[in-house]
Structure formats: structure tokens, C-alpha cells
Amino acid sequence: MIHPSFLRHLLALAALLSSAETLADAIEASDTLVVTATRSEQGLNDSLAPISVIDRDDIERSQAPDLFELLRLEAGVDIARAGGPGGQTSLFLRGSNSNHVLVLIDGVRVASAATGAFAWENLDPALIERIEIVRGPRAARWGSDAIGGVIQIFTRRAEAAELRAGLGSHGDRRVSAALGGERWRFAASWRRNDGFSSQNPDGFAFDPDDDGVEQRGATVATNLPLGDGRLELHGRVQDGRLEFDQGESDIQSYSGGLDYHQDSNGPWRFDAHLLGARERLETTTAFGESDIVTRRVQLGLQAERELRAGLDWMVGVDGWQEDGVLRGSWREDRHTFGVWTGLDGGLGDLDIETALRLDRDQRFGSELTGNLALGWRLGEGFRLQGSVGRSFRAPNFNQLYSPGFDGLFAGNPELAPETAEAIELGLSWQPADGQQLQLNLFETRIDDLIDFSGPDFQAINIRRARIRGLEISHRVEHGPWIAASQVTWQEPEDRDSGLRLLRRAKTKAAVQIDRRLAGGGWWGLEVLYTSARIDVAQARLDAHTLINLRAGLPLGEQWRLEGRIDNVGDRDYDPLIGFNAPGRTGHLALRWTP
């Protein structure tokens, strides 16, 4: 049975879509460029991959306190958090596992080599300039991990000074600053939240005390002209300390590198990079203490040549060395090398994106992946498109070598990589620059899915998964109004048991409406519907609808008062089994831009 509140959201979505034709003439031209789908610049509306872009203007209007609130509104994204701010956060892209999405920060692979996960909860939106979300397999361009897609985060590129300070519910206080010039940029943030009891009596380690979090972070970059190109040095540091029932954790992460981009007007364009990341996770629980340190160094070179107007050929090589250690247990390292090529562009009314990649993993041998996408321009702004792709993911260090707990949940050195095949059919409509409606049908089949199973819950390759879905997304700007909406239907199924994959909703819909006001102010509304989900032991997490409000009011030329209220209706729901949601919360901040 369809939930009544979901029907209301569908009506709102339909109203937005039906207004597209009348608003088309009012939309200004957009020159949004994206780089993640093909590893080269292309127009957002030219890409054959479904892409969502969250730019700095979107982030500032949203005032989202963390990535959990920012990303949960996007098509194809399910996100689950254990408790309140700073709680462990898992992101599922198109119903795939949380470690089936490749996460990049300024081109650097940042997921832990030990757990395969990225600490979404530890990165402040104040340090982010733009996010590109590419849905669907991208292993043929990027290598391992990109089964569900790729999410690339670009750090702040402030052109002037900015200072922001705020207070909020549960003792939340935060400060952020950003400044930059033609050849450099810097941003920093600090946050402390006293929290609330993250677990309820259904939790496995319930303790009614408040569970707080403190986070600090900074990004820095400089660039210099070099020949007919530019050299950029960039870095990021992040630290987060979280209290949870019966324990605490401290995570420190670093990433950065050196990039060279050639801006020649000749037939060839070259890019080279030397990148690195390090993460240390110290955790204290009732089971004891753990201290995991992982490092990764990346090298890459790619070349691009224009074969004819609008048709480009790319070739590249890259590789990375990973090492990790669990104090008192395992110490391992491995390297991966890949070579790839791709062809992108248009031939008349036919658009094409194709890529082929061969990876050689020191432990698991060779993996061949590919991707082919075709689009046919039908006229009147319509384009029919389809794609197929193959991807894989190598097991992480914990899945291979973890000692487990008292003989349970141990790793397995005999694991094989997970593999996946995907097919997609889509229709896009672009009646004017800056506006696009997208419909995408997709199916992904994953084999050798790694699970902790059997009498000792050891990691083994036993499961198969099939994920079918439909995404509809739309965005339009008209005068002072900005409206964005999306709805996702999906069936993420474990093909061995016939059960739904955990923590993924079958239906999700979101609507965002913002209105700019005279003098630089604005107000906005978010509505998010999430259908029922299944958690561990087949526990049911009920459907819920959340309404959030945000606004900004200028106080002279240099000051602005900003505010946000989350969960206006104070809806009580369980984000995960045994965990509490924050309830209604509010944040108020003052921004200074001299």
C-alpha cells in the first residue's frame, strides 16, 4: 500500500514537472562543467551518465549541518546514521553496499583501505566547494570500488574572506572560516555538539547518557603556472572524536597531492598526479581497544586528444599502493596498476561514451571492466540513452585479515573480488539551458557478494544481489524561485534469500523549494519521504516524512543572519534499530563577508 504522505509528495513533484514548459523561456544559460564521469571536462547536460551536482550556492542555501542532511535529498542516495551528529554514517548509492561507491576528494581515494568505508560524518560542508554524484558503474574509468557509482568532493575555493559562527540544539556550536586569492585558498572549521543518547533500550549497549562529538578540519591549496599548464598543491586534514554508548572513537584523516594540468590549445592535453591519503581510527568499546592505520599513495597520467570537433579520445595509466596495520594483529600491503582508454563525444545526433580498463591487483590478479553508453538526440530537447557496464571491488583488509571478536566475524584470506554488471535505459529532456528532466531505469547484478555468514560469521563469498530501480529528477529556476525534486523507486534484493538488502528504502522522494528575496535574503523548504526499511534480524524501520526549513537575512552589506530548522514536525522515528533520531533541532548562525 502506498503511504498517503508519499502520494502528496508525488503530487508536488508532478506540479513541478508540469510547470517545466512554461518556465523554460525564463531560465538563464548554464555552463556547469563536470569532470568525474569521464575524468575530463564536459557539460553537465552533455553527459550520458546520470549526475547530480551540489555547488557552493546550494550548500549555503541549505545550511545543512553535515553531509548526512545534505546528501539524503539526492536521487539514488540512501543514507543511514547511527544516532545523532558524528554517528557512523553509511551511504548506499543505487541500492549497492556502502563500500560499493568510490569516494574521491580532489581526486584522492579517501575510503579506508581497512574498512572500505569513508567517514561521511567527519567532513564539514563548510570545507566543500562542490560535490559531483555519478550514478552507475564507473570502474572502466576509475578502477575498483565504483560499482554503485562515484562521489567526488571538491574542497573550498573561496575567492575572498568569510567567517561564520553558529549555535544550535543539543549544545551545538561551530565556527568556520575561508579565504583565498588568485593563487591560493584556505578553509577551516570547528564543531562541538553535546549530543543526546544515541541508543534506546533496544540498542545492544544502551546507556542513557549524552553522546557528544567534536570535529576539526582544514583545507589548503596553491597553484602556479608551469609552461602551458598549471601545477596545484593541495591538502586536507580532519579530526573527529565521538562518544557513543559503552565507548568512544577518534579518527584522523589526511589527504592531498600534487596535480599538473596542461591547458594547451594543441591537439593533446595531459594531466598527471601524485596523491596520498592516511587514516587512523582508534576505538574503545566493551570488547576492547583497536587502533587501525591505513595509507594509500596514487600515481597517474592521462592524455586526451581531439579526434574531430566534439569527439575526444583518452588514454591513461594509474596505480596505487595501500598498506595497513591493526595494532597487535595484522600488517599488510598491496598494490594495483591499471591502464584504460575511452572515447567520448558526438557524431551528429548520436552521443557516445565508452571506456575499457584492465587492472592488475597484486593479490587478486587481473580484472577487465568496460562501459558503453549511447544517446540519440530526438529533437525538442529530448534524448534517449542507454548503457551497459561491468565493475568490481577488491576485498578490504578487514574482510581479509580481521581477527574478529572471540572467534566471530573473522576475516578470510581466501576471498575473491566482488563483480557486477549493470544495464540502464534513460530519457532526458532539456527544454532550455540550465533545466533538465531525467528518467532512468536501471538494473545491477552483483556476484560473489561478501558477507559475514556461517556458524562463526566469517567473511565469505556467498551472496548474489539484484537491484532494479527507477529514478526521476528535475530542477528548474524561474525568477526568484528555485525548485528541485526527485523520486527513487528501487528493489534491492538478496537473490539467495529473496530478502531485501538492509537499510535501503524501496521508495524515496524529496522536494526542495527556495525563494530569493530582495536585498540578498532567501527562504527555503525541504520535504523528504523515506519508505519502510529492513534492518538487522529483519527488524522493520517505519516510513517517515520530514520537513525542514531554512532562511537567510542580510544585516547590512557584510553581515547575514542564517537559520535552519530540521524535522519541523518533531517526527519520532528510528534511523537504525536501537538508535534514536535527533527530533526537532534548530541552528542559527552569523556570516561575515568583508
Automatic annotation (TrEMBL):
What InterPro entries does UniProt report for this protein, alphabetically? Beta-barrel_TonB, Beta-barrel_TonB_sf, Plug_dom, Plug_dom_sf, TonB-dep_rcpt-like, TonB_box_CS
Q: Name one GO cellular component term.
A: cell outer membrane
Q: Which Pfam families match?
A: Plug (PF07715), TonB_dep_Rec_b-barrel (PF00593)
Q: Which UniProt keywords apply?
A: Cell outer membrane, Ion transport, Membrane, Receptor, Signal, TonB box, Transmembrane, Transmembrane beta strand, Transport
Q: Where in the cell is it found?
A: Cell outer membrane
Q: Where is this motif: TonB box?
A: 32-38
How is the protein disposed in the membrane? Multi-pass membrane protein
The main place the protein resides is: membrane
Q: Which GO terms describe its biological process?
A: cobalamin transport; monoatomic ion transport
- Family of this protein: Belongs to the TonB-dependent receptor family.
* Record-given protein name: Putative tonB-dependent receptor
Organism this protein belongs to: Wenzhouxiangella marina
